[in-house]
Write a structure and sequence with these properties.
The chain is α+β, with helices and mostly antiparallel strands and 388 residues long. Helix content is 51%, strand content 12%. The chain folds into three domains: 97 residues; 91 residues, OB fold (Dihydrolipoamide Acetyltransferase, E2P), CATH 2.40.50.120; 107 residues, no CATH class. The chain has a five-stranded antiparallel sheet with strand order 3-2-1-4-5. Helix 4 packs across helix 6 and helix 17 crosses helix 18. The two termini are 36 Å apart.
Length: 388
């Protein structure tokens, strides 16, 4: 897939889903265990006693009750109306089962094999205890699980941060142990996917001297290609706004810099605009984005941001692209058209739309349809799978 096709996909998906309030530097998929626990009526750890493949039944004995319901009574043995092959478990395995009561019988609608020494059941019990607690309390507790040796546990704790509202994250980040986070950042064992989260944590709780560690990552050619660079830049700017912003401008104006690194920096700039204009003013950010308008591989993304933020005062700079070689890129033309369609009251933008409509009416109608769809999707409620 080309850079331009990729940009269309990223741009359309991102813009049509509206602005997210979750952790800006995290990427996670699927439900958290806390969500699954909320949805289940009963959650247990059980061992298989016997299984009958012909009758499609499995007899289990409950070892631990993580979440209970009065309908279960005091029984510890149940026959599930489904066959679960116990062979992979051997003599030391067990199940973590999420259950409902169906026709007065225990119905395990989701189950997973867990090792004898798995810490997942204890983690799930902790999640049950945390239900209803303030976000700050939940997140402070889950922070301690981020480096847990059990990957199921640490992975789920990461998801909790990924789905948390940034305003809650920002409030609790200030009290985190900077030394511990700095250790994670410097460790070669830390997955690059977590670097953005950890760097942004450090940006909130660290000291100015800690900026050196984040700058080292940004300057390291071997680490510049990994994920999390947007959060690393944001953390750097939070710790040292002056030096961090100067560094950012140097990257933005350097068209010879690798595209993916400039794109990571752009994502970091978006975070500043959306959440931390107390550090770098929105005017400074807009001026910085305008440095990208003469770069044919990334101008479209800058235009889309300026349109989304409704900065119509830079319309002349954007429309001037028409007279440059940057305008040869179809994706730039589409972004300019979208911007001009929404830049109401600007004579130059109106004239540009009129000329495009005269040359290709269908493309203008398609662009307007996408803008209408974007507005509709922006009004939709948040994904319920991310609710706690």
């Amino acid at each position: 897939m080309t850079r331009y096709a990729t940009a269309i996909t990223l741009g359309m998906l991102g813009l049509l889903t509206g602005s997210a309030t979750a952790c800006p530097f995290c990427a996670a998929e699927g439900q958290t265990y806390s969500t699954e626990l909320n949805e289940a009526r009963i959650v247990i750890v059980a061992r298989p006693i016997s299984a009958d493949i012909d009758k499609e039944t499995t007899e289990i004995e409950i070892e631990t009750v993580i979440k209970d319901d009065p309908s279960r009574g005091k029984k510890t043995r149940f026959v599930l109306s489904r066959y679960i092959d116990p062979t992979p478990l051997g003599t030391k395995g067990k199940f973590l089962l999420f259950c409902e009561i169906y026709k007065d019988k225990l119905d395990a609608y989701r189950g997973m094999f867990i090792k004898e020494d798995s810490k997942l059941p204890a983690y799930c019990q902790k999640l049950v205890e945390l239900k209803g607690k303030p976000a700050s309390v939940r997140l402070e507790t889950l922070f301690e699980y981020l480096d847990h040796s059990d990957l199921d546990v640490s992975g789920d704790a990461y998801k909790e941060f990924a789905y948390a509202d940034y305003k809650d994250l920002k409030a609790m980040y200030k009290g985190l142990p900077a030394e511990k986070i700095l250790k994670w950042i410097k460790s070669p064992d830390t997955p690059s996917a977590r670097m953005g989260l950890y760097a942004s944590m450090l940006g909130h709780c660290g000291k100015a001297k800690d900026a050196v560690a984040l700058r080292a990552i940004l300057d390291d050619p071997d680490r510049r290609t990994g994920s999390g660079l947007d959060g690393t830049l944001a953390g750097y700017i939070m710790l040292d706004p002056k030096a961090g912003w100067e560094y950012t401008l140097g990257v933005l104006k350097n068209s010879k810099e690798d595209f993916y690194f400039r794109y990571a920096v752009l994502r970091g700039v978006r975070f500043l605009y959306d959440y931390r204009s107390d550090l770098i003013t929105k005017k400074q950010i807009v001026d910085g984005l305008c440095m990208l308008l003469n770069q044919k591989d990334i101008a479209d993304l800058a235009i889309e941001d300026l349109r989304r933020w409704q900065h119509w005062e830079v319309a002349d700079k954007i429309l001037a692209i028409e007279k440059t070689e940057v305008y040869e890129q179809p994706i730039v033309k589409r972004s300019m058209l979208r911007y001009a369609l929404q830049c109401k009251g600007n004579a130059a933008a109106t004239a540009y739309v009129a000329s495009r409509r005269k040359a290709d009416r269908e493309s203008v109608e398609d662009a307007q349809e996408l803008l209408d769809l974007e507005t509709t999707n922006a009004k939709k409620p948040d994904d319920p799978s991310k609710k706690k």
